Model the fold of this input.
Amino acid sequence: QVQLVESGGGLVQAGGSLRISCAASGRTFSSYAMGWFRQAPGKEREFVAAISRSGGSTYYKDSVKGRFTISRDNAKNTVYLQMNSLKPEDTAVYYCAAVLGLYSGTYYSREHEYKSWGQGTQVTVSS
Done:
């Protein structure tokens, strides 16, 4: 299993931007499709964005389309989530997750499909 460590969370004002990162251990990062999920206080964890192992395919939750961008750098074993035009409702603990990608262009949006999870990073958006 790949080990995942998120970083880059923090406090930002509404309308601001933040980029969070997820560093993966191991030499087979390019074999893993990656995803970002989030969990707000009192709510269930929800899907945010996903990217295929090649980086060529991405998929987003409707409410973040046009504001968030998922990307990856396989040479650095890192996946990113660029978050722009942040809203208070984006406040949550953000988790990255990994699963071995069946095909280079496959992405996954269901929580149960992912096999490895990071510890999460807090993102707080003030109004």
Residues 23 and 118 are 9 Å apart (CA to CA). The mean pLDDT is 96. The radius of gyration is 13 Å.
